[in-house]
Every structure is written in C-alpha cells, then in structure tokens.
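Morning!

This is the sequence you dropped in the shared folder:
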Amino acid sequence: MPRSIHLVFLSVACLAIAFLAGGCAKPKNRISGKITRDGKPLEWKSDEGVLLVIFVPLDRDRDNNVYKAETDRETGAYTIVGIPPGSYRVSIQQMDPDTTHDLLGFALSMAESTIIHDVTKEGEVIDIDLPRDLPRKGK
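The structure's back. Tokens below.
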C-alpha cells in the first residue's frame, strides 16, 4: 500500500474512533438559578450559614453521580457546571449556623425533597421559589 494511502486510511480510522468515542458521551451543561422563599431572599440567622443545592439524577442506574452547586448565600444564586441532560430531584439545605441545623428542617434533603426539575439545555436558568410553609420531614 503506498504511503499516502496508508496515511489517509490511518487518519480516517482515527477520526472514526474519535467520533464513536465522543458519540457515546452525553453533553454536559452549565445551569444556574436562584433560590428564594415565598418570593423573597432567604433569611439567615448568622453570617456563618451555608446554602447547599444538589441535583440528584432520578435514574440512579444510568447516573449515580450527584451534582453540587456553587452557591452565593447572600443572593441565593447557584451554578452547576458539567451536568448532563435529565430529570433531577433537587435537594436544598439552608445550614445555619453549622451543618447540623437546617433552617428548612431537612424537608428538602436528598431523601425528602419533592422538587423535580429537568435539565434540557446549556445555559438553562432554573429558579426555585420555596413555599413559606414547607412539608414536614418524613411526609
């Protein structure tokens, strides 16, 4: 086989392998939003609090990762980079003043949250307004 044909064949084979390998990967998105409660910014008891926002895939067989957001407790803003499209349970905890006291009563923990959202595209904004009266944990 002449050298030029061999190089073309090798290039096409490499491109095919790269295409097939990349074709299996799901696109990853950047999403953002704001957490409010009863239409207002979250209220904190101290300057030590932490806002936790975690997206947990509903199909745990397909994706057993959890996607933790970068958050700004002052504004309630959050961002997640690298989350694939899919349906997610959203866990929100307002830990103040430490990680043993959730101002939301753990009603929206990973095990208890009833908030479900779909991630469908890059740059999606998913704002979440929590009700004033949250469900009680375990109900």
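Headline: Strands lie at 29-37, 40-41, 50-57, 67-68, 70-72, 77-83, 86-95, 116-119, 128-130.

More detail when I'm at my desk.
O.
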